[in-house]
Amino acid sequence: MINIIISEAYASQLPQYLIQETAQAVFRHQKVLDSSTLSIVIADNQRLKDLNRQFRSIDSPTDVLSFSSGEIDPETGQEYLGDIIISWQKAEGQARTSNQSVACEIRLLVIHGILHLLGFDHATIEEQKEMWAIQNQILEEFGCSSPDKSSQSA
C-alpha cells in the first residue's frame, strides 16, 4: 500500500496515480513485496527545510528526503518501508533546469526516495552509477528521458 499525501496547494497540479504507478514500477523492478507499505508526501520548500534542519542539520530545503523504517505495521502485519517527502518547488525548478516535465521530475524523486528506503545510496561513484542506472531504467518506462547526471537528485 502506498499512502500519498499531496499538499492542498499542489493537489490540482499532480494526479495521485502518477505517484502510485511510479512507486509500483520501483516495487516491480526491485522485486519488493506488494504487501510492503510506504508514505509519500508532496510538500513545500519550508517543510523540507524544517525536516532537513531537524534531521540532517542542514538549514536549507532539499528536493527529497527519505526516512527508512523497516518496521512491521502491527495492524496489518505489512512491512512499513518508511516515508518520502518531496518538495514541489524544488521539483518544478529542477524540471526547468533539466528541460523535463514536472511529472518526470516528480517520478525521478519518487524513484530516488524509494531506492534510498530500499538501501541504495550514492556516497561512492560505484553506488551512484548503480543507483542512477536503476533510476534511468524505471524513468524510461514512463517515457521520461534521463536528466543530466550532474543534476540528478543528491
Write the layout of secondary structure elements.
Elements: E1 2-6, H1 16-29, E2 37-43, H2 45-56, E3 64-72, E4 79-87, H3 88-97, H4 102-117, H5 125-141
Parallel strand pairs: 1-2, 2-4
Antiparallel strand pairs: 3-4
Describe the protein's architecture and organization:
The chain has helices at residues 16-29, 45-56, 88-97, 102-117, 125-141; strands at residues 2-6, 37-43, 64-72, 79-87. It is an alpha/beta fold and 154 residues long. The longest helix has 17 residues, at 125-141. It starts with a strand and ends in a 13-residue tail after the last helix.
Main attributes?
alpha/beta, 154 residues, globular
What's the overall average pLDDT, rounded? 90
End-to-end distance: 26 Å
According to CATH, what is the class? Alpha Beta
Helical segment tally? 5
Overall helicity: 40-55%
Oligomer: single chain
Q: In the CATH hierarchy, what is the superfamily?
A: Metalloproteases ("zincins"), catalytic domain
Strand content: 15-25%
H/E series: EHEHEEHHH
Global shape: globular
Provide the CATH architecture. 3-Layer(aba) Sandwich
- Would you identify the regions where 5 or more consecutive residues have pLDDT less than 50? 149-154
Q: Count the strands?
A: 4
- The neighbouring-strand order within the major sheet is 1-2-4-3
Largest sheet: 4 strands, mixed
Radius of gyration: 15 Å
Return the CATH topology. Collagenase (Catalytic Domain)
* SS content category: alpha/beta
How many discrete structural domains?
1
